[in-house]
């Protein structure tokens, strides 16, 4: 696939993910926080299910259920284990990665960082040679940066390399 076509596909993928992300960012504050004892323990308790009964359904010892509940509270539970426990209680596990801002905004900001670093280095070199870089040139250079800096190159450079 041509680089331009790949870039367009990524932009489309970001657009679709951003639609979902916008919706999720709106509802996240309304979602109930994790119960103090964790979701597994709270759900099990609300169902009236003992650790022994959940253990029987999972085919493990009751001590394993206690370890599971403790690891969920600690944030170290393995996703496959959480899914098995949820299924044993007729529940689903929903795992979300919600960008804090639209993905396209993140890409644009990163591209601008790279562009500004390049533009500023060029301006310094030109100033040393008694030449000035016109601010009128900046929009043209930014448009050029969009075609010359592929998405895959945006994240290779460390922040400290930009300064």
What this model shows, in words?
The chain is an all-alpha fold. The protein contains 8 helices and no strands. It has helices spanning 3-27, 39-47, 51-58, 62-74, 79-88, 103-128, 137-148, 159-162. The radius of gyration is 25 Å and the shape is elongated. The two termini are 34 Å apart. 7% of the residues are buried.
| Percent in strands | under 5%
Gyration radius, in Å: 25 Å
Separation of the first and last Cα atoms: 34 Å
Summarize the amount of helix as a percent range: 55-70%
User: Which oligomerization state do the chains in this entry correspond to?
Assistant: single chain
How many helices? The count is: 8
Q: Could you state the order of secondary-structure elements as H and E? A: HHHHHHHH
Strands, count: 0
Principal-axis shape: elongated
- Poorly predicted regions are none
Main pleated-sheet profile: none
Which structural class best describes the helix and strand composition? mainly alpha
On the 0 to 100 scale, the average pLDDT is 85
């Amino acid at each position: 696939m041509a680089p331009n076509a790949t870039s367009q596909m990524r932009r489309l993928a970001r657009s679709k993910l951003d639609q979902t992300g916008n919706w999720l960012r709106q509802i996240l504050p309304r979602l109930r926080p994790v119960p103090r004892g964790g979701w597994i323990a709270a759900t099990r308790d609300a169902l009236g299910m003992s650790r022994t009964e959940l253990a029987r359904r999972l085919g493990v010892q009751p001590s394993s259920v206690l370890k599971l509940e403790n690891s969920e509270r600690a944030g170290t539970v393995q996703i496959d284990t959480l899914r098995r426990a949820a299924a044993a209680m007729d529940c689903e596990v929903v795992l979300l990665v919600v960008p804090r801002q639209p993905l396209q905004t993140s890409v644009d900001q990163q591209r601008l960082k790279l562009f500004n670093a390049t533009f500023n280095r060029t301006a310094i070199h030109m100033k040393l040679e008694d030449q000035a870089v016109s601010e009128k040139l900046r929009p043209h250079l930014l448009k050029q940066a969009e075609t010359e800096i592929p998405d895959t190159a945006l994240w290779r450079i460390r922040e400290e390399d930009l300064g």
